[in-house]
Amino acid sequence: MRGLAVDDLVGSVVVLDSGDGPVRLDVRRPARPCAWMDVVVGPGAFRAMRRTGGVRCVPLDDGVLRTGHVTVTVLTPAPSEP
Q1: pTM of the entire structure?
Q2: Would you state the pLDDT for residue 80?
Q3: Are 55 and 9 in contact (CB under 8 A)?
Q4: For residues 14 and 68, is the Cβ–Cβ distance under 8 A?
Q5: Phi, psi dihedral angles at 29 (to 5 degrees)
Q6: Helices (H) and strands (E) in the chain, counts
Q7: Alpha-carbon gap, residue 78 to 25, rounded angstroms
Q8: Torsion over CA of 30, 32, 36 and 39, rounded to 10 degrees?
Q9: Per-residue confidence (pLDDT) for residue 81, from 0 to 100
Q10: Are 79 and 13 in contact (CB under 8 A)?
Q11: Separation of alpha carbons 75 and 80, rounded Å
Q12: What is the mean pLDDT of each run of 10 residues along the chain (82 residues)?
């Protein structure tokens, strides 16, 4: 996502809505690109993605996310799940 400091979202729940209803993601920890990306994505992917941020999330809802415009809501801190 452009324009959002995803590294700052660890410990939050992010709600994304791309037009088909909200999908909540529990932002758990930072994720850094690794050499494995060259195998899965293609040669040069690791080098191209170095020094970029990322996070690992757990989806809290089923839903559909589409490319394009998305509404983002950040809930901090993450609410506890029952």
Answers
A1: 0.73
A2: 62
A3: yes
A4: no
A5: -160, 160
A6: 2, 4
A7: 10
A8: 110
A9: 56
A10: yes
A11: 11
A12: 84 95 94 83 85 86 93 80 54
